[in-house]
Description:
Mean pLDDT: 88
Largest sheet: 6 strands, mixed
CATH class of the largest domain: Alpha Beta
CATH topology of the largest domain: Rossmann fold
Radius of gyration: 24 Å
Structural class: alpha/beta
Number of helices: 18
CATH superfamily of the largest domain: HUPs
Amino acid sequence: MKLKSEFLNEINERGFIYQNIDIEDLDQILLKNKISGYIGFDITSDSLHVGSLIQLMLLHWLDFYGHQSIALVGGGTTLIGDPSGKDQTRKILSKNEIDKNIDNIKKTFDRFINLKKNSLIINNYDWLSELNYIDFLREFGSKITLNRMLTFESVKNRLDREQPLSILEFNYMLLQAYDFVHLNKNYNCILQMGGSDQWGNILSGVDLIRKINKNNAFGITSPLITNSDGTKMGKTADGAVWLNKDKISSLNFFQFWRNVDDNDVSRFLYLFTKLPLKEIEKLSLLKNQEINEAKKILAYEVTKIVRGKEDAEEALEITNNIFGSKIVDKRLPNISQNKANLDNEKFTLLDAIEKLNLVNSRSEIKRLIKSNGIKVNDSLYNNSSFSLKEFSDANEIKITIGKKKIGIIKIN
């Protein structure tokens, strides 16, 4: 598919486009005009995670080429819960919890779109909270049929597996479609983007705009991003890889990208960095040991976008010290402990790893020890008593979890 407008050509070349509604017509509009487009974000946590990164990059490129990007935070729809791609009903959050989450997430959007110039963060609670339900049903209820909603994959899959789908969640689709209608009417927004699981919701919004506002509207979905082994991207044994610094350190965020599978490096460079396409083409040719340089560049570039240049450079420097120069960097996670507590076995390896926040649970620590996943001072640890007594004469003890997590115990 050959696209002529700068924005669509950029995202198409980078692999963002999976499904679309009338993209050739949109391409012609973009050649002559600046537009407004949006992506909706559920606010179920106080941070977005890397699963949202592809949507944030779409907003970035729309903003980059001079269009208006709208990050729509679902202060209203999150009160209901999106059934798309879910096997069960989401936990219902209070408005208070959602408002706190929105405040925490706003700084993330600021790294991707220019909020001082043209782009916006908008909360759909502002209009959804004022809806009169009877008026809403009279105006919009007849425009979307259950027959069509039942054909959407997000609904069909749940029903095929005989998993409950509440009326509450059915209404979510109506409200998301209404969001697009509202943004089209009040902000002249003609484009909705989202993940492939949002295809049905985007179709409904486009149909409503055409029926009610008598305007043309467009939709683009991005592919579901999985690792090369088919697992969901951004999920690790320790949980989600968060974008906010207070949820996961910049070093661990950097290391997540530094340790992606070789087969994912090229694709992730296209999707999650702003590197020129020609440069990515060259990096994509690297194989075997050389691919580690491409992984470092990927990790640095993504960390720079999400956390800022200073954090990216610090994470790169610490990584080079640990794995290149074999220097125990003082900025690694560290704790202090009395030598007597180690000698008396009052403070064990389990205590150390827990306090360093390297692993989520003690049972997981024990599993890692059994599978040779933990090193102490660069030697495999397999002591069933979890004692650190034999290391107590040193000034420091280095604990390594797998290939990427390191913590230091300073002995006093």
